[in-house]
Amino acid sequence: MSTLRGRGRVEGLPEWDRCAVMGVVNVTPDSFSDGGRWFDTGAAVKHGLELVAQGADLVDVGGESTRPGALRVDEEEELRRVVPVIRALAAEGVTLSVDTMRARVAEAALDAGAHLVNDVSGGLADPAMVPMVAATGAPFVVMHWRGFSEGMNARAVYADVVGEVVEELERRVAAVVGAGVAPERVLLDPGLGFAKTTEHDLALLGHLDRLHALGRPLLVAASRKRFLGRVLAGGAAATPPPARERDAATAAVTALSAAGGAWGVRVHEVRASADAVRVARAVEAAR
């Protein structure tokens, strides 16, 4: 099976002949990556359009930080942050994803023009999420998740991280599909950095083939994450570079993920990853 065929198609989304690039717009004051730079609605919309100009195929808009230790925001505040940005970007023809764990926020975003629901809990955080997704027919990202941000580091315990993540994702997909979400609209995300150590994240990246065996397109979201900082620092005892100094490392993961057949990558800095997926596709085509 070629990596292109391994990517699969997601019903309800455009089809690209290569790994898709999902640009990130964090409409939050406390993102680990960009520290509130796009918290203002106008700034967030401008940034989303800039990401598209740099090569993003779709833009993921989120109003709640999910960094380790982050506390949840009020639902009304999340709606206030997300919906105007989604509506404005949709009016410009941007393909959009909403990054939320709340069914009400996801539904409002879909009504405002979003195309995809990216729920880091895979529908576990809000019992209303999966029924809403099933009813609307929206494509749905099911991420591997073991609990909310404030306590997830304590859950990073595995005897076999790849096997356990595969098994837990398989069970979650079965539950989501069993509740009425069309399987051809489901994407998988291994949840890098969520209840995982550096070693766990690297093992998952090194075994994308085992995740592909689940039979659904794969979204890899490694951008600027802690494990890249640890790799660049050379060990746990050294000080990792700040998040915004991890973009070259992120682009390296993009190239590896594209070559490994990922459907898409989720990144903060788009241009280098957009170049990386095109080079990976050209090499694939030359085989």
Would you kindly provide a brief summary of this structure?
This protein is an alpha/beta fold.
Describe this entry's structure for a reader.
- It is a single chain.
- The protein contains eleven helices and eight strands.
- With 287 residues, the protein is an alpha/beta fold.
- Strands 6-5-4-3-2-1-8-7 form an eight-stranded parallel β-sheet.
- Helix 2 crosses helix 3 (75-91), helix 4 packs parallel to helix 5 (129-136) and helix 7 crosses helix 9 (226-233).
- The chain is globular, with a radius of gyration of 17 Å.
Run of helices and strands: HEHEHEHEHEHEHHEHHEH
- Briefly note the structural class of the backbone: alpha/beta
Strand order of the largest sheet: 6-5-4-3-2-1-8-7
Please state the average pLDDT score. Answer: 92
Count of DSSP H/I helices: 11
Oligomer state of the chains in this structure = single chain
Distance between the termini: 13 Å
Helix content: 40-55%
Report the strand count.
Answer: 8
Rounded radius of gyration (Å): 17 Å
Low-confidence stretches: 1-5
% residues in beta strands: 5-15%
Q: Give the overall silhouette.
A: globular
Major pleated sheet = 8 strands, parallel
